[in-house]
Design goal:
heterodimer; A: about 270 residues; alpha/beta; Rossmann fold; 4-stranded antiparallel sheet; about 40% helix; B: about 325 residues; 8-stranded mixed sheet; binds adenosine-5'-triphosphate; binds magnesium ion
């Protein structure tokens, strides 16, 4: 059975584009339906501004949909309140697109990664500290001890991104929305982190919505890939089909714009 | 005289646990109109280098040695007032943190108008006109200039910051991961525009990125940083055809292919070096498959080899592929 099913999901933002203009609307997500299976890595690629982040936030109910439904484990989460909503939130995590915005600037690295453990009362004392350090080491923030008391502004972009990943994974959630989680990492560290995420999928049955602009990363990570354009999913299929045999003109345009590594001799 | 040159730059951040030595002796020379691609491990000092050039480092940062020569004049000796005139107009930067570059309480378009008016003697209407052009140039709908940063998607904000950096036609552009939040179609469009500006106005560019394919498509020269130093630099073609430094080789091996399935991606074994107490000798030695005694005791200088520069004692002997 699918872990997540969305039906006709829509999100419209009211905006005022001009200084003295009237109310206008941006349709960020427009009639989107898909399923994500248990243990699946479901890729979301597509145009900048096409609604990928909005879609991810809707799935975790960080935003309320304008219309449509979202089933998680058979339950319509758009209707959850109180205790049920809390218990849903405990099972899911988000790695936000921009680690410059998502980490609390007043939290040290230790505070950021320990917070979900504290909120969920998962571990305390020495055990908590041990888990924080282990999570940091897994994302290659080493020596972890020397980073625990740093603040986000004292870290590089890729280091912040890894703190955000450690924070999301430390509680071993069931479902993660990973929004461009490795965009600021060099290819070597990135490879290590992608492998870590795949291992968690295998060992802990982690399910993921994986948003990325890097099609090679999508190919490596995902089982199926959905392509978004102007709020809609224009193509959805297995990664091989989408990348080797794209059907929609936008997907084709996307694939033909991927920068190529020139002069890398294979001989 | 070079258009732009960095000589022996050293810089650290003071922290409660000691000094984080983010730049440990960097030399760099660029001609006008050249594009340099700067790659390297996360946390190795690339952003610190960019911020040093613009003198926008945080208070706990200290430049202890070196010179940064722009048209032969040392930027490290300029007053803050002089630097303010140089920033944006002559040297500008696309910040890695798009959101930090935008003020959340002002409309995006107004911020760029203000930046232009602060440096150029033109009317507000002319500035607005230029903002519309810049928006189209980076693929943003000019009709959305009146919105606030939080109403933009991640990639839209990044494009706004690029528009702002290009607004005054700078001579030197430092672009720090400028397209990480963009789809490849917008990315291509923007890179082509930057190429155009390089040709038309002779703009010089330092392009910091983890995307080595982009470097191979846009830059003339590529430099690789590791542990606060440049460990290799060459013409892009030469470097990719025959990477000489073991770190560069490992990096290139970690690139995932688009059209082949791979079993499991490889990454470079071992831990990134601590800049609080960098390893003795070559900073890559604890992770290097070729390391010998001398690598643990003596630091290899950046030296000429095969038309490029490399900092490795045994570069001649290390095979590729
Ligand atoms: N809070 C908001 N208020 C108004 N408009 C918004 C808001 N959040 C998003 N939007 C708009 O919704 C659309 C989709 O944005 P979203 O962030 O989901 O795109 P995205 O696919 O994640 O793009 P990117 O790849 O650039 O991050 C955009 O036009 C954006 O400007
Ligand atoms: N304000 C600060 N105080 C202390 N250390 C800092 C500060 N800013 C950066 N650092 C450290 O300096 C080193 C270099 O950081 P820098 O941001 O230059 O890296 P980078 O090469 O740009 O990395 P990335 O690719 O991840 O963005 C990092 O190890 C980082 O943790
Ligand atoms: Mg987004
Ligand atoms: Mg950086």
């Amino acid at each position: 059975m699918a872990l997540i099913t969305t039906e006709n999901l829509r999100k419209v933002f009211p905006v005022r584009k001009r200084l003295f203009g009237g109310q206008e609307y941006v349709t960020a997500v427009d009639d989107v339906s898909f399923k994500i299976h248990r243990r699946e890595v479901f890729g979301l690629v597509g145009e900048s501004g096409s609604g990928k982040t909005t879609c991810g936030r809707l799935l975790l109910r960080l935003l309320e949909p304008t219309s449509g439904s979202i089933y998680y484990d058979g339950v319509d989460i758009t209707k959850l309140t109180g205790r049920e909503l809390l218990s849903f939130r405990r099972r899911v995590q988000m790695i936000f697109q921009n680690p410059y915005e998502s980490l609390n600037p007043r939290f040290t690295v230790y505070d950021s990664v320990a917070e979900p453990l504290i909120i969920q009362r998962i571990a305390d004392g020495e055990e908590r500290r041990r888990r924080v350090i282990e999570a940091l080491e897994r994302v290659r923030l080493t020596p972890a001890e020397s980073l625990l008391r740093r603040y986000p502004h004292e870290l590089s972009g890729g280091q912040r991104q890894r703190v955000a990943i450690a924070r999301a994974l430390v509680t071993e959630p069931d479902f993660v929305v990973a929004d461009e989680p490795v965009s600021m990492l060099d290819v070597s560290i990135r490879a290590g982190i992608l492998n870590l995420m795949l291992d968690l999928r295998d060992d802990l049955d982690l399910t993921m919505l994986f948003i990325t602009h890097d099609l090679a990363v999508a190919r490596y990570m995902c089982d199926r890939i959905a392509v978004m354009h102007k709020g809609r999913i224009v193509e959805l299929g297995s990664k091989e089909d989408v990348i080797e045999n794209p059907q929609h003109p936008y997907t084709r345009a996307l694939l033909s714009s991927v920068p190529r590594l020139h002069s890398l001799s294979k001989t | 005289m070079s258009f732009f040159e960095i000589q022996g730059l050293r810089m650290h951040y003071a922290t409660s646990r000691g000094r984080v030595k983010a730049i440990r002796g960097v030399d760099l020379k660029m001609d006008k109109g050249q594009a340099l691609g700067l790659a390297g491990e996360s946390g190795c000092g690339k952003t610190s280098l960019g911020l040093s050039i613009l003198r926008l480092l945080p208070n706990n940062a200290h430049i202890t040695r070196g010179r940064i020569l722009f048209h032969g004049e040392d930027l490290l000796r300029k007053s803050e007032e002089e630097m303010r005139r140089i920033r944006w107009k002559y040297i500008s930067m696309v910040f890695q943190s798009a959101m930090n570059a935008l003020n959340p309480v002002y409309r995006v378009g107004d911020q760029i108008v203000e930046a232009i008016l602060a440096h150029e003697d033109i009317t507000k209407d002319e500035a607005k006109e230029r903002v519309s052009e810049l928006f189209s140039l980076v693929g943003l709908d000019p009709g959305r200039a009146g919105q606030y940063p939080h109403e933009y998607s991640g990639g839209m904000r990044q494009r706004a910051v690029i528009a702002m950096a290009l607004a005054c036609h700078p001579e030197l552009l430092i672009a720090d991961e400028p397209t990480t939040a963009l789809d490849v179609i917008h990315q291509k469009q923007i890179i082509e525009k930057m190429d155009e500006l390089r040709e038309k106005l002779g703009m010089t560019m330092i392009y910091i990125t983890h995307d080595i394919a982009i470097i191979s498509e846009t830059c003339d020269v590529m430099a690789v940083m590791y542990g606060g130093k440049i460990v290799e630099s060459s013409k892009v073609r030469d470097l990719l055809r025959r990477p000489m430094h073991p770190y560069t080789q490992g990096l290139i091996r970690s690139i995932p292919p688009l059209h082949d399935s791979v079993g499991r991606l490889t990454s470079i074994e071992g831990e990134p070096p601590s800049l609080l107490s960098p390893p003795r000798g070559c900073s890559f030695n604890p992770r290097c498959a070729y390391s010998r005694d001398i690598c643990r005791t003596s630091e290899p200088p950046l030296r000429q080899l095969n038309g490029g520069l490399v900092a490795c004692h045994f570069a001649e002997e290390i095979p590729w592929p």
